[in-house]
């Protein structure tokens, strides 16, 4: 099936097995702008949508709220009244800062009786300056209607609704995980833990890690979803996915037979004496790229290709699945550091 009449065909790959990626000439707009500040709308860092025309939710890594939007033809349509507060100014008397939200996922009800949820995850990493900020180590969820994605409760942008659940116990899980414990309290430029993607597969919540990367492998933390909002830290395992030297996960998106991985550089200070990710010291910066992974630990990720026409230093951080067929994936990529994420559409051969 031909999806679009006007496409630029660009063939580039990460290996001889890479698929073909097409960058569409269709121009996507965001109208009106995302709320509430220029910093927030230039820091879109995660989003996901309810299938078949339901609401989408976008998070940013500068504030403590998320915002609903709709996907329309070649346009993202943010709801100006759809700002939902996630974190109060204080928790247990302690002042909260930014969430550093990095990932969003919609998880439908498993049986049609239980609620569906939107989840939003903080980075669970130290600040750039190495400061521990409790607000960053938070995972959120709230119930929504399965078909529309609308919250099952009333909400406003200035106060956290009681239906918005939060947990800070995932940080303890990370510190006790044998693959992550060494890196749990390190800065990003010391290979410290930083979550940048979230998805759900077969009852597990998957957290894609930008860092650490170990011997050319990125890590994905797998946690039973049913354990996440209990009163004790959830159990976990990790999967090592070979993406290359200095390459980490920037987002995860569920597809029919597994996951699409949006990947990019792991450490911004590549080549400094602090860098500890891979064995090599000064290769070119890795380009933003797409991969397919089955979601099964031990299975190799399959390279789909670098994103054509995207600068090697661009921060491609959000991946939305627009359409999946037997032969192609149609996706939208948003960029941190660009106004409203500057969305770009790509078609990927399978």
Considering DSSP H and I runs of 4 or more, what fraction of the residues is helical? under 10%
Q: Give the integer mean of the pLDDT values.
A: 89
Distance between the termini: 13 Å
Compute the CA-based radius of gyration.
19 Å
Order of helices and strands: EEEHEEEEEEEEEEHEEEEEEEEEEE
What is the name of the CATH topology?
Answer: Tachylectin-2, Chain A
Largest beta-sheet details: 5 strands, antiparallel
Range of strand content: 35-45%
Identify the CATH class: Mainly Beta
Report the uncertain regions: 1-17
Short recap of the structure:
By secondary structure, the protein is mainly beta. The chain has helices at residues 38-41, 170-176; strands spanning 7-10, 21-24, 29-30, 44-49, 56-60, 65-72, 75-85, 90-91, 94-95, 101-107, 116-122, 139-144, 165-167, 194-201, 204-214, 217-224, 237-242, 247-255, 258-265, 289-293, 302-306, 315-324, 328-336, 344-349. A hairpin with a 2-residue loop joins strand 14 and strand 15.
């Amino acid at each position: 099936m031909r999806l679009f009449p006007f496409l630029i065909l660009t063939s580039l790959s990460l290996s001889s097995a890479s698929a073909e990626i097409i960058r569409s000439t269709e121009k996507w707009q965001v109208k009106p702008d995302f709320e509430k500040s220029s910093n927030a709308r230039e820091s879109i860092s995660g989003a996901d949508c309810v299938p078949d025309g339901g609401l989408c939710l976008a998070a940013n890594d500068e504030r403590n709220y998320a915002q609903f939007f709709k996907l329309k033809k070649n346009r993202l349509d943010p709801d100006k009244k759809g700002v939902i507060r996630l974190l109060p100014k204080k928790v247990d008397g302690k002042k909260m800062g930014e969430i550093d939200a990095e990932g969003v996922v919609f998880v439908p009800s498993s049986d049609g009786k239980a609620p569906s949820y939107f989840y939003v995850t903080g980075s669970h990493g130290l600040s750039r300056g190495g400061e521990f900020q409790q607000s960053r180590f938070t995972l959120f969820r709230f119930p929504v209607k399965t078909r529309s994605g609308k919250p099952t409760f009333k909400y406003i942008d200035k106060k956290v609704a009681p239906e918005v659940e939060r947990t800070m116990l995932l940080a303890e899980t990370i510190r006790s995980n044998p693959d992550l414990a060494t890196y749990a309290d390190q800065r990003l430029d010391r290979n410290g833990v930083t979550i940048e993607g979230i998805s759900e597969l077969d009852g597990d919540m998957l957290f894609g890690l930008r860092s650490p990367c170990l011997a050319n492998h990125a890590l994905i933390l797998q946690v039973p979803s049913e354990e996440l909002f209990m009163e004790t830290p959830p159990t976990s395992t990790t999967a090592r996915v070979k993406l290359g030297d200095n390459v980490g996960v920037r987002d995860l998106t569920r597809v029919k037979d597994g996951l699409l991985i949006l990947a990019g550089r792991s450490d911004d200070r590549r080549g400094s004496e602090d860098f500890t990710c891979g064995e090599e010291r000064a290769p070119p910066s890795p380009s933003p790229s797409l991969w397919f992974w089955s979601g099964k630990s031990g299975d190799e990720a399959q390279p789909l290709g670098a994103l054509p026409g995207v600068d090697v230093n661009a921060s491609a951080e959000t991946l939305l699945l627009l359409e999946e067929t037997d032969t192609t994936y149609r996706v939208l990529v948003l960029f941190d550091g660009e106004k409203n994420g500057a969305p770009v559409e790509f078609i990927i051969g399978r």
